[in-house]
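Q: Structure tokens for this one, please.
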Amino acid sequence: MWILIIGGLVSVVAASVWLGFLPPPHATTLIRISGGQLYVTRGGLKAHAKQDVSEILRDAGVSHGFIAIARRNRVTFSRRIPTTVHQRLRNVLLNQWI
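A: Here is the predicted structure, written as tokens:
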């Protein structure tokens, strides 16, 4: 019985991550957006990249959400960030080190 409960909880968490409700736990960089402000809670982000990301999100009307960068430059966005700005954000985030 406990195995079913634990399996169900693991499935709910995995689905929440996959659908963009929760950031992936293995992210090397985690950017949270709250009240229109950007907070880097894990990893690092250069100042110019942070400014560019803030501008893109502000123009898109995003006030809450997250952006996570995992190994192999895999970028994950919360459901609140419109898909129309995903590629622009990827370009800024993944090219900040060049």
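A few notes: The chain is about 40% helix and 25% strand. The longest strand covers residues 64-70.
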